[in-house]
Design a protein that fits this description.
The chain has 18 helices and no strands. It is an all-alpha fold and 390 residues long. The protein has a domain of 126 residues.
Length: 390
Amino acid sequence: MNAFSQTATYATNAAQSRGRLVSETPSATRTAFQRDRDRIVHSGAFRKMRNKTQVFIESEGDYYRTRLTHSLEVAQIARSISRALGLDEDLTETIALAHDLGHPCFGHAGADGLAAAMEPYGGFNHNEQTFRILVELEKRYARFDGLNLTWETLEGVVKHNGPLDPHAIPPTLLEFNGTWDLELTSFASAEAQVAALSDDIAYNTHDIDDGHRAGFFRLEDLSALPLFGSALEKMRKLYPDTDRERLMYEAVRDVIGLIVDDVLAATQRNLDIMKPQSAEEIRYAAQPTVVFSEGMTAHIDVLRRFLRENMYRHSRINRICAKAQKIVRDLFDFFMQHPNCLPASWFDAVKACASEDNAKARIIADYIAGMTDRFAVQEHKKVFSTEAMI
């Protein structure tokens, strides 16, 4: 496949966007999707990802990935695949950059803590939280809340992992969908599907890199894994005198290249069968179009199991996660009991919802989910420590 394909018939066309919920004058210098990307990059939620956990909290070391650097890596992989497939690179990048905005402090541990706290009040889901940020919580414009993104970007963020279960649509999405139908039960665009697979590629390969740096496993442990075993053997032959750290970097790059090539080949086989002539045909296909091959899916599943057993469940990570969940639960319970201790603007929002507990809990969850790791730790100390009182 040509790595610099021309725009494909099945690509999403920015000039034919379904527009924005609040009508705006088009930009003279940017497409609608470029404008969406810029709004995401300039958002407060995007900046805060630099201090939000991917796997390791920032105090563990300077070189580990954060939620922000992960999102940038996803976007880079996604643009490369999108270009090769002749898709709209700007829409792909936009969805990739936005997909993790809703992750709270401390990554999945923080999300688990908030989900447990919010269980009686409608639950918490980081994908729904991303959507809340995009349509409500960012308050930067005089005419509307949120970022007023295009239909295609919102659809892609919501459905990048596939169609939603009509019986389990989160409340924010359900309410918004009554105003502007995002067609939640169909597949998203090919651009969104590329962003989703790029997320899988990035975190599976880069978590191997971070786990090795942290000492959770050695190069010898990776030699038995699919993809990494052959990549390491290849790099040892090419660079017999190089150090182990550089071998690791070379292997990670090689594995990313192998997986990207697999996506392109497997997707092209689908396209040859489907022969889609529009983005709509991708959306209403019976199965996803952008895919890994069966063999690659099996290899990636092995990587996931290896990471789960040797990294995500490591005692060092478990201790961090336990502390993170305690911080989140403590803060949630405290502010539910003492909402007048919230910052003024957040307390005003709680007062506006009167005694409705679900609405009150959602506002408090929004506040905590927006915290960086550092701020959450500091806020916990301020709330519960008495040392600074005297």
